[in-house]
Amino acid sequence: MSKQLSTRNLLGIKDLTEGDIQLIFETADNFKEVINRPIKKVPSLRDVTVANVFFENSTRTRLSFELAQKRLSADVINFSASSSSVSKGETLVDTVKNILAMKVDMIVMRHPYPGAGVFLSRHIQANIINAGDGAHEHPTQALLDAFSIREKMGDVSGKKVVIVGDILHSRVALSNILCLRKLGAEVMVCGPTTLMPRYIGELGVRVEHNLRKALEWCDIANMLRIQLERQDIKYFPSLREYTMMYGLNRALLDSLGKTITIMHPGPINRGVEITSDVADSEHSIILEQVENGVAIRMAAMYLLAQKD
User: Could you give the 3-state DSSP secondary structure of residue 63?
Assistant: First the structure.
């Protein structure tokens, strides 16, 4: 297997080969061992400067990337659009070119518009990692989710994974579908018809609108948050009704007659898509996902830095 990625940017799962994904996983295995040592730092990205450029609010993803950068001994600068010249009308390209003029090597960017990273990659030479672009893709989240399944189950291939909830507005859902399918998993999506994209059938996934049937089919259930901030109209009558139809509680989990693994990309709306007694149960690998996120992001940045 090649020790380099086939791409110089991480803009979406669709740009990665299965070999790329396996290389990221093998590299993350090594970094996971590092972050569990007493001294959690390696000099792998010493003298590399990374800018976290976030045009959208983020807590977990930004912290995970920042911690990964510091574990690799990179120099880190953080940029928040709300307190920048973007609010004065400066363009995305001008903003980033000004950052790059300070001799930045890599950009980690979150942006509300789909394709912002692809657009930027045509104008700058630095490596770009997409930390989420609108409702399009969130590649490192999909990689850490698949890595967590591999860690728990031994392999992703052949596993049955259902993604439950707001598929329409979720960049996590799209990236997960692409990643899991490349790794040989069977994928189902489950949620109200109003929260299913029109193109969903083209992605090679099953569609189910009954949560119990979906849970009886799957080995792993990835419960998504309802993205109220991206919903411009009402897609269902009320959160209470959504929870009654698509919320996962302990009684439903215990009634399945088999053990399934529960995942959630966070942040959790406890009591909406998942109850606390499920999120905090022995079936959940939600905290493992958080830990694995640091290792996966370390691996991605380390491998991209090798391209130059």
Answer: helix
| H-only helix segments in 72-193 | 92-100, 116-121, 139-153, 171-182
User: pLDDT tens digits, residue range 220-260?
Assistant: 999 998 865 444 546 666 888 889 999 999 999 999 999 99
Residues 118-158: tens digit of each pLDDT: 999 999 999 999 999 988 999 999 999 999 999 999 999 99
Look up the domain containing 159 and give its range. 139-289
SS3 of residue 175 by DSSP:
helix
Does any domain span residue 267?
yes
The residues, any chain, with a CB within 8 Å of residue 297's CB and separated by 6 or more, are: 64, 65, 68, 129, 140, 144
DSSP secondary structure, 199-210, as one string: TGGGGT-EEE--
Pairing relation of β-strands 160-164 and 220-223? parallel
Considering just the CA atoms, what is the radius of gyration of the chain in Å? 19
